């Protein structure tokens, strides 16, 4: 397959550069905080915590990274409504804990993206999502890359998602 080229002239030299999708105009990918994270003492023996909820926009495609605690639901909906956003195409739950996935129900049409450990033996985890695999979301500008964590090391030992299974990390 031939890649179309364009010629650039710099002084007395002419260079050929490949034309790519990056040469075309695309709206920028933007990140916005929908809920600012806080951690403050509520009383001498307790803390009030609120996790960050992030909106990633790639053109008209909306991706929510974490959905916060259920108590943050009204704040998140208000922020999205003020931006004229009424649905998300994807929600990314970085953890199954409530502070990261407490409002998934607010986005019934969104495809949920979660780690293999958090959604064992589902259609989603039977996809090839191993190291080196890339899944485009909205465009070639937004995609997932597996970044294995160490959540399962303390509980079950190494797994296909654990960073300790890589050859360059020594498992005692």
UniProtKB/TrEMBL annotation:
InterPro entries attached to this UniProt entry: RibonucZ/Hydroxyglut_hydro
Domain of life: Eukaryota
Name this protein carries in UniProt: Metallo-beta-lactamase domain-containing protein
């Amino acid at each position: 397959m031939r890649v179309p080229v364009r010629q650039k002239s710099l002084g007395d030299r002419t260079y050929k550069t490949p034309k790519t999708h990056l040469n075309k105009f695309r709206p920028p990918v933007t990140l916005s905080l929908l809920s600012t994270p806080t951690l403050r003492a509520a009383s001498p023996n307790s803390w009030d915590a609120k996790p960050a909820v992030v909106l990633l926009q790639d053109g008209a495609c909306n991706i929510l990274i974490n959905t916060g605690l259920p108590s943050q639901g009204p704040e998140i909906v208000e922020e999205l409504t003020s931006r004229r956003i009424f649905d998300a195409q994807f929600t990314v739950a970085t953890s199954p804990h409530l502070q990261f996935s407490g409002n998934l129900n607010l986005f019934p049409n969104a495809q949920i993206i979660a780690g293999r450990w958090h959604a064992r033996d589902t259609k989603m985890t039977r996809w090839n999502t191993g190291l080196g695999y890339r899944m485009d979301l909205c465009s070639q500008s937004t995609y997932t890359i597996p970044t294995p964590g160490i959540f399962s090391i303390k509980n079950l030992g190494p797994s296909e998602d654990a960073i300790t299974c890589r050859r360059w990390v020594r498992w005692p």
